[in-house]
Design goal:
Elements lengths: L5 E9 L3 H12 L5 E3 L11 E4 L1 H10 L2 H5 L7 E6 L5 E5 L2 E2 L2 E2 L3 E4 H10 L6 E2 L4 E7 L2 E6 L4 E9 L6 H6 L5 E13 L9 E7 L2 E7 L4 E9 L12 H11 L5 H8 L6 E8 L2 H6 L3 E2 L2 E3 L14 H21 L9 H38 L3 H23 L13
Parallel strand pairs: 1-2, 1-12, 2-9, 4-14, 12-19
Antiparallel strand pairs: 3-8, 4-5, 6-7, 10-11, 11-12, 13-16, 13-17, 14-15, 15-16, 18-19
């Protein structure tokens, strides 16, 4: 029989995605060790790539890994917006701020996660470790894993995605379906694609389609659509049908738009429903409770319409690491009198994190939903308004939400 083990850890992070690894690295930079439990057998790279905007690069710089990721991920200076019916297109430049445009780059998810993991001490990330239940044992939480082992921890951080077990334990209501889904793909050009780094986005008939170069040899593309447009219930399990569906919706677009989809291998296409946490649930619910909190998609699942899912997860990790380190390290740990005092410090640190992130998360979820509604609502009036006025309004909202600084990784007044 397999030996049942019980391990004790100071800080356990459930989920080895962007938020989990960012939090672990932030804590490491500040001198705190953590253990990351990842249920899968390897890094989770579903989604292929993501756009990282100004706020994300500020967080990456705080972690000390921004420049290494910039080296082969070129800046995206502009967005090309068009309509597949009217043929109208417009170019929207990144707004200037202090003489510089906002920063945006498309980065492979695999590259981002591997960069974060590479900076962590050996043994920080533990794969094939699925948490199945959480038990309260006074000042510590007892985690029961699928393999029969248990862990006791002083701090529990849930970065376990949209269907978060930790969020459920905190009492946060489940995310809701937005009525839309997204098909995503990643096309590789072995000899290079030769296109300038611009995001191309088209809206029409309840569909939003876009593609962006990800380095010199790859394109990342996406197609979000209203569920009423899905013509085959089995499409979400069939990449060939996904590909055909997208091609049928973009048949009126420039040749390059269809070529990107056609170049995509079937194992590089995925489909998923788009969910969000109702914003008022964040205002009324528990982001933290005692020595437990959530971050990333476990905290603020949102639609992808302003490109802030991964960016905000990076923000969360930096803010959470700083708040927790301030609570534990401002006073030398050997001067903490007992478990009760340590628990109170942890609780105070997590409450500070929750206070900092509550309204930011509320704003991001709300802005993403409104922008998505404007972009995908069909009809002649909405089409006219979108082409003449709303496109610039929605993208100014995107850049405004990205112009945010989560702060540095330092502890003011620490000893």
């Amino acid at each position: 029989m397999q030996e049942i083990m019980e391990i004790e850890e100071d800080i356990v992070i459930v989920g080895g995605g962007i938020a989990g690894l960012t939090t672990a690295l932030g804590l490491h930079r500040l001198g705190l060790r953590s253990l990351v439990l990842e249920s899968s057998e390897s890094l989770r790279i579903t989604g292929f790539a993501l756009s990282l905007w100004t706020n994300a690069w500020r967080a990456l710089d705080a972690l000390g890994i921004g420049n290494s990721l910039r080296e082969h991920n070129p800046q995206i200076p502009r967005v090309q917006v068009g309509s597949s019916v009217s043929g109208a297109t417009s170019e929207i430049e990144s707004p200037e701020k202090n003489g510089r445009g906002n920063e945006g780059r498309c980065v492979r998810r695999k590259e981002l996660l591997e960069t974060l993991e590479r900076e962590l001490p050996h043994g920080t990330l533990r794969y094939s470790s699925k948490v199945v239940s959480i038990e309260d044992t006074g000042y510590r939480k007892l985690l029961h894993l699928a393999d029969g082992s248990t862990l006791k921890t002083k701090v529990l951080i849930g970065c376990d995605g949209v269907n978060s077990l930790v969020a459920k334990w905190l009492g946060l209501p489940k995310p809701v379906y937005s009525g839309r889904s997204a098909i995503r793909g990643f096309a590789e050009y072995p000899d290079g694609h030769g296109f300038h780094p611009s995001i191309h986005i088209y809206f029409e008939g309840g569909v939003r389609y876009g593609y962006v170069p990800c380095g010199a040899n790859c394109f990342y593309w996406f197609c979000t659509y209203n569920s009423s447009l899905q013509y085959d219930e089995g499409m979400q399990e069939n990449p060939a049908k996904m590909k055909q569906f997208v091609l049928s919706k973009i048949s009126q677009l420039p040749k390059q738009a269809a070529e990107v989809v056609e170049m995509t291998e079937l194992d590089s296409i995925s489909c998923s429903p788009l969910k969000l946490r109702l914003p008022w649930n964040l205002l009324l619910g528990n982001i933290s409770k005692g020595n437990v909190c959530v971050a990333g998609d476990a905290l603020h699942p949102m639609t992808p319409d302003i490109g802030q899912g991964g960016c905000s997860a990076l923000e969360d990790g930096v803010v959470l690491a700083r708040c927790l380190a301030e609570a534990l390290l401002k006073k030398p740990r050997n001067e903490i009198q007992n478990e009760e005092e340590e628990y109170a410090r942890i609780q105070k640190g997590l409450e500070k994190f929750a206070k900092e992130r509550r309204w930011r998360s509320f704003s991001l979820i709300s802005a993403a939903y409104v922008v998505g509604f404007i972009q995908e609502t069909d009809g002649k009036v909405m089409r006219f308004l979108r082409e003449k006025f709303l496109s610039r309004f929605t993208f100014s909202s995107v850049w405004k939400m990205a112009d945010f600084h989560c702060g540095e990784l330092n502890i003011s007044g620490s000893k």
